[in-house]
Amino acid sequence: MNGYRKLDRVSWSEHRNNDGDSFYVNFEGEEFELRLYFVDTPEKYLSDRHERQRDRVADQADDLDISLEQAVTVGKAARKYVATLLKAEPFTVYTNWERVYDDDERYHGFVEIPDPDHPGKTVYLCELLVRKGLGRIFTRGEDTPDGRHWRQYKDYLFSVEKGAQRNRVGAWSL
Description:
This protein is of the alpha+beta class. The mean pLDDT is 95. It has a single domain (5-168), classed as CATH 2.40.50.90. β2 (22-27) and β3 form a beta hairpin. α1 crosses α2. The chain contains 4 helices and 8 strands.
């Protein structure tokens, strides 16, 4: 497991800050915020007061070749999709407890769930978000729990993204 701790039977925790790539989870009565490796979903709102947040949405929109308003729409869709998937049943988290920007309560990790497109198989949530056109390949990468080097997995995600573009799904359909 490449130094990861495997957390089984993790559940989604409702929180106003949850979005598609960063959300609160509960494991054995302890709540913490998990930030997915490799993927960045657009923000779910466009701030009229914080220039850095607006710049972030603009960068996300540019990478996905969509407008700011469309980026926010995709961000809301990503949050809803992730919440629906993770509320449905307990899931597995792999984490090495690496903090996100030295934050005391936010940790990087992988979420493994049943693959909704391939019954009987599992998928990392970051891959699924890219496949559905709900996120860009961006942010920190790490070797996967199943042993793939981070560069190999990132290259694989780029091929998944090309498929999403070809199939015109999610942000690629706008």
